Amino acid sequence: MAACDGEEDRHARQLDILPVSFRDAFDESCGNLKPAHTLSIAPMMEWTDRHYRYMMRGLTRHTQLYTEMIVDSTLLHRREDLDIFLGHDECEHPLAVQLGGSDPVQVGEAAALCEAYGGFNEINLNVRYASR
Ligand SMILES: Cc1cc2nc3c(=O)[nH]c(=O)nc-3n(C[C@H](O)[C@H](O)[C@H](O)COP(=O)(O)O)c2cc1C
């Protein structure tokens, strides 16, 4: 799809400010990140826990899996219990952890905990999901 007048410049500027590791995933024709996978099992609170994901991986290798949304403050207040919230099996890859939050600093700290915990292919941010 061709970009409209002016859009190409905007997309080039967007590409410029992206961290280097994300640049291959940027689609300049539309200004969006390319989806990493064609098919995903969507994140679902109270459903996509590690047991559900393990079962889904048994059904197909060809999908990205997501954790349930984990609220950022949960991780920040329960740093000693990260296995409860972030624990997963190797077979679940590719696996994205979904973080929920609205404070950029707090979400950033929670994302750093996920990165340090390790094993996730993606950190997905949910900034507007109402869980209740
Ligand atoms: C029970 C349930 C829980 C959900 N929890 C989340 C969630 O934690 N995070 C999220 O981004 N979307 C959540 N969703 C939305 C789904 O991920 C998905 O986007 C939605 O069901 C639409 O999917 P569809 O476009 O394939 O119909 C939830 C949906 C359901 C039904």
From TrEMBL:
Gene Ontology MF: a single term: tRNA binding
Pfam families recorded: Dus (PF01207)
Residue ranges of every copy of the DUS-like FMN-binding domain listed in the record: 41-127
Domain of life: Eukaryota
Keyword tags: NADP, RNA-binding, tRNA-binding
Gene3D superfamilies: Aldolase class I
PANTHER family assigned to the protein according to its UniProt record, in alphabetical order: FMN-LINKED OXIDOREDUCTASES SUPERFAMILY PROTEIN
Protein name per its UniProtKB record: Trna-dihydrouridine synthase a
